């Protein structure tokens, strides 16, 4: 497959899928987003995320340490907004509190770990997930493994530059965007779509 | 110490410059003076010693908050890693055997996503003992995961060091940058260098935008490990480690955009449509430029490609240039020809690539050596 044809799609892709960045997928500039390896406007990607969340059988939010502790001003508000968005979807929340591998294994019913994320996805039969508040390196490590071994549709709400390895990725994600998406979800649900 | 004000990077990089006639080592000092570096750690090794000595002077003047000498190169590179993990902007330099003595640290830096900037003043590798110019250590460094820039001149050295902090510290990049320069040829000779006013400095590093948690007492209280997996033999450990390595390589890919933004491009060309291309990096570019001028004055169709970024390597650009040339000559200051290997690894037709001429052990490269190859390729 040529680099330009590479698309970031639900797997299981392969035993060891490549980093999308090494296959020619580039991060979006400000105001844009990534959908399955292609650059689109941010608003279009937000619509797509709402679609995916509302049509999934078992969507789950994976909040990471950056939103699990009130380590700086504004984080508690952001965490609350994430919870409201998950509730609007009717999605479960399974936290990623820790980046170290846990042995002999994590309890996949209640947590996810970036080094073996597929245990949680398989155990809970998760078909769509949201990464939020996870440090970028650990998010990318996990996102590639999920694409390699599961058919879960991955979405990343990143407050930095975004993630090529997610199927949908927003960048510079702020609390206002959470409010906007929650409203979009409520509106869509109100319309019965 | 001159009172400095923080300015946005473009303001510093595009400021009206003063031309100074200084050595490469002094150009390093002037870059660090403006880089808002918080900490520098040094260990002397020729031809790097003077650079870090001059950086020490900056500490004495108050431009740097912390500066000390490590026990050896491995200790320095390990200390630098600790400083970067703690969230400070840090600088060091080494060269030759010092590079090899510290070798394990460089992959560790990359794997830990540390935005360290390190200058490598290259020299020969023992044995027999030599302190003379040679770029062979770059061959060893190619797969450590760090970004590798190769300076041709003191101006390059100054600009690459100063701007490397901006490349290294991007969240999606956040891996070390090594600025390599041919020892003695650049470090110990004087050249004209255009330098921004000394009352300007870069914005400070923001460790909280790092892709890995900064290890300070203000950050979120969770456990982390940046050298994990070795203690377990199972699929999860292997798979996570593989994904981790891929992510470090991906970070280098993402650096292309910022090398383009801050250094113009990964390559520079002169007469890229010529029949014969000289492709080089470091001071081999200067010798090639002389040879090109001689050749063109004799009517030969010769162009020059200067490779500034060795990692990430400009694969597409080089593939395209080699495709259109009738012959490619790769002059190098080392015995192994690592740049020729790199070029051959991306070229469609490797038979047109001449892996030389090469000199080493401190020898200079007369442009006539390159001219001889140009004549041979023109028959």
> CATH class of the largest domain in chain B, anyone?
Alpha Beta
Strand order of the largest sheet of chain A: 2-1-7-6-5-3-4
Shape of chain A: globular
Low-pLDDT stretches of chain A: none
Which H/E pattern describes the elements of chain A?
Answer: EEHEHHEHEHEEH
Strand order of the largest sheet of chain B: 4-3-5-6-8-7-14
Per DSSP, the total helix count of chain B is 13
Number of strands of chain B: 16
- In total, the number of strands of chain A is 7
Largest sheet of chain A: 7 strands, mixed
Q: Would you write up a description of this structure?
A:
The complex is a heterodimer of chains A (193) and B (379). Chain A has a domain at 69-188. Helices cover 37% and strands 15% of the residues of chain A. Chain A contains six helices and seven strands. Chain A has helices at 42-55, 65-68, 75-89, 117-124, 136-149, 175-190; strands at residues 32-35, 38-41, 59-63, 92-93, 128-132, 153-157, 168-170. In chain A, strands 2-1-7-6-5-3-4 form a seven-stranded mixed β-sheet, sandwiched between helices. In chain A, a hairpin with a 2-residue loop joins strand 1 and strand 2. The longest helix of chain A has 16 residues, at 175-190. The radius of gyration of chain A is 16 Å and the shape is globular. Helices cover 39% and strands 18% of the residues of chain B. In chain B, strand 12 (276-280), helix 10 and strand 13 form a beta-alpha-beta unit. Chain B is globular, with a radius of gyration of 21 Å. The model of chain B has no long low-confidence stretch (mean pLDDT 95). Classes of the chains: A alpha/beta (193), B alpha/beta (379). At the A-B interface, helix 2 and helix 5 of A face helix 9 of B.
């Amino acid at each position: 497959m040529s680099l330009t044809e590479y698309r970031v799609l639900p797997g299981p892709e392969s035993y060891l899928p490549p980093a999308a960045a090494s296959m020619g997928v580039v991060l979006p500039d400000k105001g844009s987003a990534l959908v399955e390896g292609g650059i689109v406007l941010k608003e279009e990607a937000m619509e797509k995320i709402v679609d995916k969340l509302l049509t999934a059988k078992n969507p789950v939010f994976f909040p990471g340490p950056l939103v699990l502790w009130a380590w700086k001003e504004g984080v508690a508000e952001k965490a609350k907004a994430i919870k409201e968005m998950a509730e609007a979807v009717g999605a479960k929340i399974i936290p990623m509190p820790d980046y170290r591998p846990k042995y002999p294994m994590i309890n996949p019913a209640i947590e996810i770990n970036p080094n073996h994320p597929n245990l949680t996805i398989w155990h809970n039969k998760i078909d769509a997930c949201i990464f939020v508040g996870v440090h970028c390196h650990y998010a990318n490590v996990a996102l590639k493994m999920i694409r390699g071994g599961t058919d879960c549709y991955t979405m990343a709400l990143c407050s930095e530059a975004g993630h090529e390895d997610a199927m949908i990725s927003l960048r510079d994600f702020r609390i206002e965007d959470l409010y906007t998406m929650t409203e979009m979800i409520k509106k869509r649900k109100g319309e019965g779509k | 110490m001159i009172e400095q004000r923080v300015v946005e990077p473009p303001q510093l990089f595009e400021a009206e410059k003063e031309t100074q006639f200084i050595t490469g080592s002094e150009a390093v000092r002037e870059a660090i003076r403006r880089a808002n570096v918080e900490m520098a750690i040094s260990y002397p090794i020729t031809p790097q010693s003077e650079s870090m000595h001059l950086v020490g002077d900056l500490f004495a003047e108050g431009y740097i908050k912390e500066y000390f000498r490590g026990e050896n190169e491995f200790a320095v590179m390990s200390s630098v890693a600790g400083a970067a993990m703690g969230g400070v902007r840090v600088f060091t330099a080494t060269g030759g055997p010092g590079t090899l003595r510290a070798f394990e640290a460089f992959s560790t830096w990359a794997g830990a996503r540390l935005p360290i900037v390190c200058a490598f003043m290259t020299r020969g590798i023992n044995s027999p003992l030599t302190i003379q110019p040679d770029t062979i250590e770059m061959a060893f460094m190619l797969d450590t995961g760090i970004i590798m820039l190769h300076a041709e001149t003191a101006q390059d050295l100054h600009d690459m060091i100063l701007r490397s902090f901006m490349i290294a510290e991007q969240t999606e990049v956040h891996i070390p940058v090594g600025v390599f320069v041919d020892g003695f040829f650049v470090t110990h000779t004087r050249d004209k260098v255009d330098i921004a006013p000394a009352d300007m400095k870069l914005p400070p590093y923001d460790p909280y935008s790092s892709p890995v948690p900064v290890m300070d007492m203000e950050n979120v209280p969770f456990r982390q490990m940046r050298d994990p997996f070795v203690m377990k033999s199972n699929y999860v450990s292997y798979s996570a480690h593989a994904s981790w390595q891929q992510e470090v390589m991906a970070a280098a890919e993402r650096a292309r955009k910022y090398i383009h933004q801050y250094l113009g491009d990964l390559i520079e060309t002169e007469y890229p449509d010529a029949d014969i291309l000289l492709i080089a990096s470091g001071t081999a570019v200067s010798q090639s430029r002389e040879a090109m001028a001689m050749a063109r004055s004799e009517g030969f169709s010769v162009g020059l490609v200067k490779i500034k970024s060795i990692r990430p390597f400009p694969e597409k650009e080089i593939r395209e240039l080699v495709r259109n040339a009738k012959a490619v000559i790769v002059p190098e200051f080392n015995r192994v020809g690592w740049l020729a290997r790199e070029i051959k690894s991306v070229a469609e037709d490797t038979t047109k690539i001449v892996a030389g001429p090469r000199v080493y052990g401190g020898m200079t490269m007369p442009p006539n050596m390159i001219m001889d190859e140009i004549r041979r390729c023109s028959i």
